[in-house]
Amino acid sequence: MTAPVSIENATKTFGSFTALDDVSLDIAAGEFIVLLGPSGCGKTTLLSILGGFLSPTKGRIAIGGRDMTNVPPARRPTTTMFQDYALFPHMKLKDNVGFGLRMRGVGKAEREERAKGFLDLVGLKASADKKPHELSGGQRQRVALARALAVDPDVLLLDEPLGALDLKLRRQMQDELKSIQKRVGTTFVHVTHDQEEAMAIADRIVVMNQGKIEDCGPPSDIYMRPRSRFSAGFMGEANFVPAKVKSVDVGGAKLETPIGSIVIARSNFTGGAPVEGRTVTLCIRPEHFRRATEAAELGTALGEAVVTGIAFFGTHYRCHLKATDAPGLSIVAHMPQSAELVEGTRVALAVNPADIVALPDHARN
């Protein structure tokens, strides 16, 4: 089964501390939502409120159109999967997976059949009679997922379930988790602080900060068109360049920056239409910088910089640069594998204006 989720003005306070601050979010049935943010941002508090482990100080939670605000966890159409798996060490895998069904009074034969079906879903049917200690970390994670899905929840809540796995296995499990979610069609709400994980699995990412939603949308939108400086910085490496709007016309806005002038489209302003005289902050991802000689007709020159540090990352060189005309401005740029750069090299930089996002600069205006 699956169901939509509606969160309306959810607030949670602990004494004088506000962990969740007037959060509203609609989740479609069958959607894979990822709550992303740093420690203390409110994402786990929101997940706990959805699961019924915490009650909101204010606000309303609905699942499948039914008010669940004050319904206890056992009576909600949700299950929660935790990072530590919490498998019973003395039980066989089929009994671990079928435990929730047993608590609901499902007979042994039906329980085992359904448990084996969900173990098959996660690729472990042949291991049904093994115990958890005989499995790897990734396999135990699959068993925990099978157990959570076996009770047929409308919504599956996942609290950093991949956090205990090593990098290679975590990447593998991200693919498997996404594939399984598509097959079963259950609404997934997944908490993580790993930006790459969020982009790999989410239909939509909800970026949270200080108890509020900073940004919400498909991974490509969150990365390429962030709505706030926090969202831009948290979703990956970014260069933030101060700029002032010099003029505006139907074709776009001309901006002056410490490393040169540039014209960008009005649609690239995320905080509203550009206004002459106002300051903004330009967000430029490292991979969008190019050497002027490589930028061809799409690039706009943005001055010269000196390489102060360089590291090879396989797919690219990650370069630290200092702008010649603005020594106080540090830039991180990804250069191609073929780049022959060393510290001290002078590089003429360029960028495609379509790749630049102008963020509101409330502190300056």
Automatic annotation (TrEMBL):
One of its GO terms (cellular component) is ATP-binding cassette (ABC) transporter complex. GO terms for biological process: putrescine transport. SUPFAM superfamilies: MOP-like, P-loop containing nucleoside triphosphate hydrolases. Residues 5-235 form the ABC transporter domain. Keywords: ATP-binding, Hydrolase, Nucleotide-binding, Plasmid, Transport. GO terms for molecular function: ATP binding; ATP hydrolysis activity; transmembrane transporter activity. It is an enzyme of class 3 (hydrolase). InterPro entries: AAA+_ATPase, ABC_SmlMolc_Importer, ABC_transporter-like_ATP-bd, ABC_transporter-like_CS, Mo/tungstate-bd_C_term_dom, NA-bd_OB-fold, P-loop_NTPase, Transp-assoc_OB_typ2. It holds the Pfam family ABC_tran. The keyword Mitochondrion does not apply. Its EC number is 3.6.3.31. Belongs to the ABC transporter superfamily. This is Putrescine transport system ATP-binding protein. It comes from Rhizobium favelukesii.
